[in-house]
Sequence to fold (268 residues):
Amino acid sequence: MGLVSGKVAMVTGGASGIGRACAETLAREGASVVITDIDAEGMAATVSSIESQGGTAISMPHDVTDEEQWQTVLAEVKNRLGGLHILLNNAGIAIGGPLLEMTLEDWQRQNAINLDGVFLGTKHGIPLIDQSGGGSIIILSSVAGLRGSPGLAGYSASKGGVRLFSKSAALECANAGLKVRINSVHPGIIDTPIWTKVRAGGAHSGANTIDPAALAAATVAHRAGRAEEIADGVLYLASDLSSYVNGSELVIDGGMTAGGGNRPAIEQ
Fold:
């Protein structure tokens, strides 16, 4: 028996990176996993990987900024799988660059996915999880949501926002007697495909990517983390092992926020 056997888990942004690793881990531990993303090819690869290991997974196209799509997807999850017990709000993007050069368009797009998407998922996910007997919502934040980082003002704002949002939402659920725990996870420098996508100067400047190997020196571990190491933390918060953990934050950063280095961290 796995740690989440018999549970239904939904992972947004499950086509790659941390999302894929979390979906694979939850499936390996017995959950039936629903993977959502806008990347159809990546979702198919995640489902194939899970099925090749004997797990159960389905995928659904999903733009997390669209409230109607959230309602449609969750209704489909209930219809096909009978309920929902675990929701990982993982979908996110990173747009770097100096604050004075950031466009309003970039600011709003980043917040629409990183913050609005989390709000919508949590708002519409809570009732279904409670109706299904209770469970856990995990929100992917970042160490950039715990402290400032030059060149990541917009990203830090979105990730700091979901950190306090998760705490407030957890308290609201508890006060209302809803059987839903809500916690945030704060990865540090994680070696995932986002490194090849993030533009250090935003959407309207050169496509300068960030090298995770160079940033790894900012951790006392002297290496970038692996997506699977974040997935292990998510599994803990998704399972009954964390039954007394609510409104909290789990930092997985190789000691970065303990005082090692001051470089920015980007995950997903």
